[in-house]
Amino acid sequence: MADITVQLVSVDRMLWSGQASILTAQTTEGEIGILPGHEPLLGQLKENGVVTIRPVDGDRVVAAVQGGFLSVQGDKVTVLADYAIFADEVDSASAKSELDADDDQAKARAEAELAAVRRNSGS
Questions:
Q1: Residue 87 sits in a domain of what CATH number?
Q2: Do you know which Gene3D superfamilies this protein is assigned to (predicted)?
Q3: What is the spatial distance between Cα 83 and Cα 80, in angstroms, rounded to a whole number?
Q4: 34: nearest Cα among 65, 7, 58, 13
Q5: Are residues 62 and 120 in contact, defined by beta-carbon separation less than 8 angstroms?
Q6: What is the count of structural domains for the chain?
């Protein structure tokens, strides 16, 4: 079975790197799925989006992302996000409290984090 090399990187750290069977990401144009053999692409990530990676080996990886880009070249996908956090690292109580914040960026980040937690739990 064919696979793709995926790198999920934020400004401050490398979150995940490895072989995957599919990656899905929410972009400004809608949700996109990347399979092996996908055409070259450069897409802009949604401000409060979610990226899901299905590794060849291991459990699904779900991350909240804010801003950044998705690049597909050959069988390599690079997700470069301004901010990213794994769904299982999210403090849901803290994120829920941020939904009432006056800061639009904090609110958007909290929305992305809670969306990633929901997707990770399958609901």
A1: 2.60.15.10
A2: F0F1 ATP synthase delta/epsilon subunit, N-terminal (2.60.15.10)
A3: 9
A4: 7
A5: yes
A6: 1
pLDDT at position 122 is 76
**Euclidean distance between CA atoms 71 and 18, whole angstroms:** 15
pLDDT digits (tens, 9 = 90+) for 48-87: 899 999 999 999 999 999 999 999 999 999 999 999 999 9
d(CA 48, CA 66): 5
What single string gives the DSSP state of each residue in 8-68? EEESS-EEEEEEEEEEEEEETTEEEEE-TTPPPEEEEBPTTEEEEEEESSS--EEEEEEEE
Question: What's this model's pTM, rounded to 2 decimal places?
Answer: 0.91
Half-sphere exposure of 84 (CA within 13 A, CB side): 28
Please provide residue 77's backbone torsions phi and psi, each rounded to the nearest 5 degrees. Answer: -120, 125
